[in-house]
Amino acid sequence: MQKNDFSEGSVIINIIKLAVPMTLAQLVNVLYNVIDRIYIGHLGTQSANALTGLGVCLPFISVIIAFSNLIGMGGAALFSIERGKGNIDEAEKIQSNSFVLLILFSISLMFVGYVFRKPLVYMFGGSEVTYPFAESYITVYLCGTVAQMLSLGLNTFINAQGFGKTGMGTVAIGAVVNIVLDPLFIFVLDMGVVGAAFATIISQFVSAVWTIKFLTGKNAFIKIRKRSMLLSASRVKKIILLGTAGFTMSITNSIVQVVYNSNLQLYGGDVYVGVMTIINSVREVVQMPVSGISSSAQPVMGFNYGAMKYGRVKIAIKFMSFVLILYTSVMWLIMFLFPGFFIGLFSKDSNLLSVGIGVFHIYFIGFFMMAFQYCGQSVFTSLGFAKRAIFFSIFRKLILIVPLIYILPKIGFGTNGIFMAEPISNFVGASLCFVVMILTVYKKLNIKNTDIKNKQ
């Protein structure tokens, strides 16, 4: 008998049951790196430079997350559709193939990152002052690439099977280990940024072991099995195609971070790169519920779409949109009113604080528009419209943000112009993504739902 049938019961309850643990899980997962920055930001006289050094490493981390999403999100979306159709054997093969792909990609990324880490650090906005901190951190961090990609990529399959609490446990156990080890390694053992990196990779290893143990154990409905690990070219192509949307969102994040850091280094120096590190850290935390809710809606939408329950898909879209718009609006207001509080969590440096408050207001003014981007992207991805999801991710990041970062400072806006690129792209790109989703996918669901009712 099939467990966790998302075509039965309340759509909203099904999403909430996944959303609460999944959101907490993703929020906790962000703490892996954010906790590192909080501790390092209060390290001592070199805290600002050390924090900036960690900020330079963010594109490395984004690339690893991007490839985790490529396989994890793509595989889980395809897995949910096949499971909704009742094709359990194919769902098992998708999950097992994804496991193999995660290992292959992680080993390749670890090797490339290690070999080219020095030129990459400078390209990502490093300077002679911040390079030693960045190099020390990323050299150790890369050793945990396999564990990080397995824990992130495979956790999507735990959630896709409806085991939200177990998915939360996957990252929670690692985050707890990281939070405990960080002060021990950084302060007690006086290892600084190296200690932060070691704490992170140990916690990632613990998470990976937990994930693999569950998906190969008796409690998983669909398991990772050796018999299903043989890669199929057609299956891999489908996984990568559906995962390209999530991959594109993450990889473009990395590109944008590089462009931001390099231009801020050019126009403002290390202090502005440090402020960008804090902004990225705050955004990661406050944006996680958006990601968690939209991710939890995806298996529900995908399952019902595969089961031809189009009315239920519409309910999921409406509920997801309402919750995301409400949450992002509230968070935008809080961040606008109390920027000093958020900056102070990461550093007490007076230069970072004085510069940060002004640009904080500029950068986050369009934060609530991210709800529309995530809604559109999630619907496109979960229902198999990968090309549209990919297009709108590229459009907002590469066609809007990147050119604006280069253009606005040159026409008189200076460093403020660099930070203005984000809200402008949010208003234009997110609006267009959501409108196209409503006019195309949502309207087609209405037509299909009407056709089914007429046949009945």
How would you describe what is shown here?
The chain is mainly alpha-helical. The protein has one domain (11-450). The protein has 16 helices and no strands. The longest helix is centred in the last third of the chain and has 70 residues, at 386-455. The chain is globular. The two termini are 26 Å apart.
Q: What's the helix and strand layout?
A:
Blueprint: H1 11-40, H2 47-56, H3 58-85, H4 88-115, H5 117-123, H6 131-141, H7 145-160, H8 164-188, H9 192-215, H10 233-267, H11 270-306, H12 310-337, H13 339-346, H14 350-363, H15 370-382, H16 386-455
Please give a handful of descriptors for the protein shown.
456 residues, globular, mainly alpha, 16 helices
In short:
This protein has 456 residues and is mainly alpha-helical. It has helices spanning 11-40, 47-56, 58-85, 88-115, 117-123, 131-141, 145-160, 164-188, 192-215, 233-267, 270-306, 310-337, 339-346, 350-363, 370-382, 386-455.
Structural class: mainly alpha
The number of E-state strands comes to: 0
The figure for the number of domains is 1
Using only CA atoms, what is the Rg? 21 Å
Main sheet makeup:
none
Query: How far apart lie the N and C ends?
Result: 26 Å
